[in-house]
Amino acid sequence: MNCAVDFSAAQLHEIYGANCFSDSEMRARLPKSVYKEVKEVQEGAKPLTLAVAEVVASAMKDWAIDKGATHYTHWFQPLTGSTAEKHDSFISPLPDGKVMMEFSGKELIKGEPDASSFPSGGLRATFEARGYTAWDTTSPAFVREDESGVTLCIPTAFVSYNGEALDKKVPLLRSMDALNAQALRVLKTLGVDAGKVTPTIGPEQEYFLIQRELYDKRSDLMLSGRTVFGTMPAKGQEMDDHYFGNIKEKAAAFMSELNYELWKLGISAKTQHNEVAPNQFELAPIFDSANVATDRNQLVMASMEKIAARHGMVALLHEKPFAGVNGSGKHNNWSMSTDTGLNLLEPGASPEDNANFLLFLVAVIKAVDVYADLLRATASNSGNDHRLGANEAPPAIISIFLGEQLESILESLSEGKPVQSATGETLEIGMTSLPDLPKDLTDRNRTSPFAFTGNKFEFRMVPSSASIAGPNTALNTAVAEILSDFADRLEKASDIKAEIAAIVKETYKAHKRVIFNGNGYSDEWVEEAEKRGLPNIKSTIEAIPVYEGSPSVELFGKHGVFSKEELESRVEIYLEKYSMQINVEAKIMVEMAEKQIYAAAARYGKALSETILKAKEAVASFNTGVYEKTMMKLSENVNGLMETVEELKALIAKAGDEEDVKKAASLFRNEVFAKMGEVREYGDALEEIIPKDEWPFPTYEDLLFRL
Ligand code: ADP
Ligand code: MG
User: Fold this and answer.
1) CATH for 176-562?
2) What is the pTM for the complete model shown?
């Protein structure tokens, strides 16, 4: 399918959510009493019984079979960061040679994938390879249609035999429970009526589109997701209108089909636009609960890859596919919402609402300051190491943008200086109203890693290719911890309003060092942040061990989100993953240098020397100086390339031999990755010397200015 989807024929209200076993689908298909019970299970008020599961399984199966499904799968999120599944068919043979379509409650509730093929970081001893997937009732099942047929996908959690989390979903769900419990305690003291508090997430996804044909000629892109050689020619930035038009059309056709597929899944792809770099785009959905948003972001990424292929393109989700070109991230919009529809980070209109807003606002400020290094860790992977602090993405230092007005209000309040309220008298928390805050703060500061945008925070450091589960698990738990302290104080207070005011002022004063409204890309900020004592963690290998440091162990342990063992397993898995990625990139680099660049350089060298000889033969006095100079440059760089490649090979072998996970990761970072930079300089210099026709793989110009 290469044309845009015809939305006029496909009535939007009919296709929207058609492939999602949504709440309304459940209500329509389940007996009233069962539906009610499922809702109670979803809300955590009741455990799931097999009897209820049987009825739901049967309804789910009928719905999926109506859609053409033949198979079902427990769809889960192992620690690799992507999703995994094991397919089973509904078919159950009968003695008379016929078949029946079956799907039991037991099959819905629990699955048993071959857990030994997924990373466990030592949580599951090899003799006990069993792991279980368990139905997550809070995220809707869906059917996926593709060339392999139609499959019912059931979002599931993945745990070991002993109940340890082997995936990203279980800790996220636990963190949502923790936030709910502590936020409700606070709301109760404030007299706000609510039965549940849910963290809400709207993840904006950035990506590149490139031509499949060109991609297939670059083993670095194919095997590691990023280019290990290549430079952006200065003239490349001035794009010709002719190309532009073509790109727009092909990208638009892709987006149109992507929207169609996502809408069918009930995913509200809302905005899409061109990003900073050529061929770079962004998709923003409407926000969901943290759990559903996380599942759906995985589906968005998978759909992008699948649909791009149908259009003869590839969607690159890597954080930094091209050196010197803006990379990709994920803007994780985060807030908290009650089941009564109240956004806890919305300033509200009345003095009381304002006071509650300020209380939750300073809770987030404190959480981000106290757990800055943990948040930084959740945003780290080998791809993001190229971005954070590299003047295009937020710096590696965590700070909060509040906007000048809000900052100055909090600053004055905390210093005991008068602030004007909405009605002109002096502002008193809980007594008089805040002045109107500008609503369009969103784009005021693009250099902040954690920005308040009027009624939510936007965590902008999150890597584009990664699951958003990790950052949100940490954020939910960190905020839960601060709210638990606030609740302790408020529950004992005799004058709630006075206590809120005191907490807001004290907390702001103690944590305002994390507030920064200025330019996060500037060198002055790096210096200033150091003076303020804010951590500046530069790489993945420094960031990941934060997970097992005692503040993290205490935080996650107290709120039942991760045990110490679960945290240690993550450190091991994430560092191993880091090493594996650098290992792959380095090996591809060696291969491209030896098999492609060297060969092209040798051919060009030969052609040049023949030219020189022939020219001299024809005219003895022919000035071959230019050719000779090129020959010299060529030989210098080829020699440099091959020498550094030999060194790189030795370093890869050394790092590969290291058995200690931490030491290996540090060798991959400090030796292998560092050497790759040297190899690249020679390779990129050769790209400039060797004629384009002779260059062995597509250049940045080809990749970024065609589609
Ligand atoms: P912009 O950032 O362009 O101003 P919006 O503020 O409307 O656009 O939304 C950006 C993203 O933030 C969207 O994915 C949106 O759904 C999400 N978002 C909006 N409100 C909330 C909220 N209360 N909690 C979480 N995400 C939200
Ligand atoms: Mg935004």
Assistant:
1) 3.30.590.10
2) 0.94
